[in-house]
Design a protein that fits this description.
With about 400 residues, this protein is of the alpha/beta class. The chain contains twelve helices and 24 strands. Bound molecules: MU-OXO-diiron.
Length: about 400
């Protein structure tokens, strides 16, 4: 094993899941990692485990650095199974380790893995464990990303281990931000935020503010997915502040559609032309061809989203309905939503989409565009003007 050292005595012992392409429905074109950290001091601590299928690999990595029986503490920052399903196997091998979690983490561990986890010891914000030269300090972070979540801070090394926060689903041979392509890294960080953390934006903004007010220095951010922010941890903190506040929103229109016989697609292309005529950035995505995860990433920094659907069975086309279920759950903030669609004898898709968006509390552009069977020149002109008007409105 090539040793990966964050600072002397602080080692990455995680695994790279190169071939993962679907993380509970989030499409991971670039794989994933489950990061686990081993801290060697007078006492030894393991921060987070990995997905259960990789527990053998984690055990091997640990045993190249120390005996598993010498682990004194296993810190469980978060119980979601991508991080904790390796725990039962590791806990059997690390038989002398105390298991540490938040109060809600303990409850969740018992519910996931059984009564043997009644022995978990709980911590709250400000609690510390002395390892020797090093101190672990805990910061509860409920709902980032589950109620049980907490961050572990290595006081003397100034390393924040915030589990899901600041992560990315990115399998690479590099482990640090200075070892990977910066554009790819930020794209995956944005995709992760848009698809996992976006509905929690107010909580995340408050937690970052709380940590800043604590005045704790941060040399590195070591999340439990993807690369470790060693060169520039401030970059990802600033990105999160921009995403949570809406400051990242730019003059950009994302047009999303699906189509049955090409009519809605013709309308989408006319809308794109209209929006582009106003010198805003425009993206066009067809749902059978783009994952919801990709679409949500495009929406993250857009000021407007225009969605098109043909009518089927008097309602919304299934892929568009599924996308709206995802989008309304992820609650992107500060977007203007517009809707369009085609129909044969009776409409329904546009009405359904507008209702869905309004029920979610989205700001909806008051007009929409519809075309019967095949859009004619007049209807395509209306589509062009619709794109134009929405683009003009976001530029104000
Ligand atoms: Fe990476 Fe919420 O688990």
């Amino acid at each position: 094993m090539v040793e990966v050292t964050l600072k002397d005595g602080v080692n990455w012992v995680g695994v790279v899941d190169w071939t993962l392409r679907d993380f509970h429905g989030y499409i991971t074109y670039r794989g994933a990692t489950y990061n686990s950290y081993l801290i060697l001091d007078e006492k030894t601590a393991l921060v987070d485990t990995v997905k259960g299928t990789f527990s053998g690999e984690l055990a091997e990595k640990i045993s190249e650095l120390t005996s598993l029986e010498k682990i004194d503490y296993i810190i469980i920052n978060h119980v979601e199974m991508d991080h904790s399903s390796g725990l039962p196997a590791i806990a059997k091998l690390a038989k002398n380790a105390k298991i540490i979690a938040s109060t809600r983490g303990k409850d969740a561990l018992i519910k996931h893995y059984g009564p043997e986890f009644e022995r978990v010891e709980t911590v709250k914000t400000g609690d510390e464990i002395k390892l020797g030269k090093r101190t672990l300090r805990f910061i509860e972070a409920p709902m980032i990303h589950w109620p049980d979540s907490m961050f572990t801070y290595l006081v003397e090394d100034k390393i924040l281990m915030p589990n899901d926060a600041f992560g990315q689903h990115l399998a690479t041979s590099g482990r640090f931000d200075d070892e990977v392509d910066e554009h790819t890294l930020m794209e995956e960080a944005a995709t992760y935020y848009a698809n996992i953390l976006m509905p929690l934006a107010p909580l995340i903004a408050r937690k970052i503010q709380e940590i800043q007010q604590m005045g704790i220095p941060i040399d590195m951010i070591a999340p439990s997915h993807g690369i470790i922010w060693r060169k520039n941890p401030d970059k990802i903190i600033k990105a999160y502040l921009d995403w949570t506040s809406g400051a990242a929103n730019k003059n950009k229109v994302t047009v999303v559609f699906d189509t049955m016989w090409g009519s809605t697609e013709k309308m989408a292309r006319a809308i794109v032309d209209g929006a582009a005529s106003q010198s805003v950035e425009v993206k066009l995505l067809k749902l059978r061809g783009s994952s919801n995860s990709e679409v949500m990433t495009e929406i993250l920094d857009s000021k407007a989203v225009i969605v098109g659907s043909p009518t089927i069975h008097n309602g919304i086309f299934p892929t568009v309905g599924g996308f709206l279920t995802d989008a309304t759950g992820l609650k992107p903030k500060g977007k203007l939503w517009g809707f369009f669609g085609s129909f044969g004898w009776g409409g329904g898709a546009v009405k359904g989409m507008v209702e869905t968006a309004k029920n979610a509390g989205f700001e909806v552009y008051p007009q929409s565009v519809e075309a019967k069977y095949i859009p004619d020149a007049g209807e395509l002109k209306k589509c062009f003007e619709f794109g134009q008007q929405i683009a003009q409105k976001i530029k104000v």
